[in-house]
Design a protein that fits this description.
- The protein is α/β, with parallel strands linked by helices.
- It is 36% helix and 15% strand.
- The chain is built from 10 helices and 11 strands.
- Strand 10, helix 6 and strand 11 form a beta-alpha-beta unit.
- Helix 1 crosses helix 2.
- It binds NADP nicotinamide-adenine-dinucleotide phosphate.
- NADP nicotinamide-adenine-dinucleotide phosphate (NAP) binds next to helix 9.
Length: 317
């Protein structure tokens, strides 16, 4: 596999492979019948061999199973990666409600539990999965900053936040990264959050950069036990309406000799040098395809087409 290009994740932060790896789908959300821990562990190893170093998980994925899986995959190779996990969401299991908990006592206990499952004594990037509206952000963020001072965590980040939340947090402790949904059919962060990150030396980590698989044009029919079945963009009607987006992406891909998945990732990378997407996959051949996207640069004609795609039918959640 060709090695991926590299980027600095945040100002004074680590240099990482320009394409990271999201591990959620290995234990959570998508096509449960296709999960295979041994294969996923091997795939994480392959990713490391190919220079992918940003590895993303969360305690809620599983719940808990994904961190244990990632910990297993990194045994003996911990020092090769920037290990990112998340805190602040709770669930009893698949199909059960997901709630938020940003209380400092929860953050502290959850961090200790994550360290144990990941088999490490320090988390490189600890991200607040969602702001808990019941807890003032400074309290949650202050507890996370304490973990940095205690040496349990190297840096802290936020997910799905707006600029005013970023300002509030940054005044207390530097926001190393923002992880929010960003892709050809989800451009919400482009107007304000991405420029804020660039100006403040904060890295931006696009999640679901392949539109949860839809933008690749190869997504199989979504089954009832799949998380996407409950999302507005994945109803049969929305998918039919959104095929036009996939077709335009495919046209660009054909013209430049790439795949739609690679075009989707190259577009994310083109949003700024501080951007490191984390596509999720459980398959070797897709891993290689996604990594190769870092070598593709989109010409003006491609960018013009991609920047004028129609808005999708259906909300994100
Ligand atoms: N902060 C948050 O709230 C949040 C929310 C969602 C996700 N995330 C993070 O972001 C990561 C990525 O997001 P995501 O997994 O939701 O969506 P994604 O990366 O946009 O898409 C993943 C889906 O695309 C498929 N896929 C991957 N590469 C492909 C390729 N080259 N061709 C065709 N299909 C391909 C995968 O299937 P296979 O696995 O079968 O290959 C999977 O079904 C997650 O793993 C997680 O770490 C964070």
């Amino acid at each position: 596999m060709t090695k991926t290009a590299r980027r600095q994740l945040w100002r004074e932060g680590p240099e990482v492979g320009a394409i990271g790896l999201g591990c959620m789908g290995m234990s959570w959300a998508y096509t449960p019948s296709e999960r295979d821990d041994d294969r996923s562990v091997a795939l994480i190893g392959e990713a490391l061999d190919a220079g992918v170093t940003l590895i993303d998980t969360a305690d809620v994925y599983g719940p808990f199973h994904n961190e244990t899986l990632v910990g297993r995959a990194l045994r003996g190779r911990r020092d090769e990666v920037t290990l990112a996990t998340k805190v602040g969401l709770l669930t009893q299991g698949p199909g059960q409600p997901i709630t938020r908990d940003g209380r400092p006592e929860h953050i502290r206990a959850a961090c200790d539990a994550s360290l144990q499952r990941l088999g490490t004594d320090v988390i490189d990037l600890y991200q607040l999965h969602r702001v808990d509206e019941q807890v003032p952000l400074p309290e949650t963020w202050g507890a996370m900053a304490e973990l940095v001072h205690e040496g349990k965590v190297r840096a802290i980040g936020l997910s799905e936040v707006n600029v005013s939340q970023l300002e509030q947090a940054h005044a207390i402790h530097p926001v190393a990264t923002v992880q929010s949904e960003l892709s050809l059919w989800t451009r919400d962060p482009v107007a304000e959050v991405l420029p804020w990150c660039q100006a403040h030396g904060t890295g931006f980590i696009p999640y679901s950069p392949l539109g949860r698989g839809f933008l690749t044009g190869t997504m199989p029919a979504v089954r009832d036990d799949d998380f996407r079945a409950g999302l507005p963009r994945f109803t049969d009607e929305a998918q039919a309406a959104n095929q036009g987006i996939v077709e335009r992406v495919r046209e660009v891909a054909t013209r430049i000799g790439a795949t739609p998945a690679q075009v989707a990732l190259a577009w994310c990378l083109a949003q700024g040098e501080h951007v490191v997407p984390i596509p999720g996959t459980r398959r070797s051949e897709r891993l290689a395809e996604n990594i190769a996207a870092a070598r593709i640069s989109l010409d003006d004609e491609s960018l013009a087409t991609l920047d004028t795609l129609p808005a999708p039918v259906g909300g994100r959640y």
